[in-house]
Request: fold
Amino acid sequence: MKLIGKILITAGIILAILYAIYFAGTQGWLKNTPLKNLDYEQLNFFSQESAEQTKVLTERAKETGEHVQHILGDKVEVDEERKEKALHEKTIEYARYLYCKQVVTDWEKE
Reply:
């Protein structure tokens, strides 16, 4: 999780820098800098073309997700009536057994 957080923070910083360059360029603040010849429309992530591409990619991602879910739904089955219990369930059951055994032993002593 720490790696994913660092990647997201880095991506956010890069996007913020690109947006700051785009904004400064469109305001004319970069006239006397080496960045004056940049095509600032390439840095505009909110253009109509980008929105259309994002919409198409979103639809395809949904279709792919449904397809994968359909494929995995046939293969992956949840065993609700499993014969062997999980380790934590066995541990809790054994602790209850030991407690009850101790209570019976104490009762028999009295």
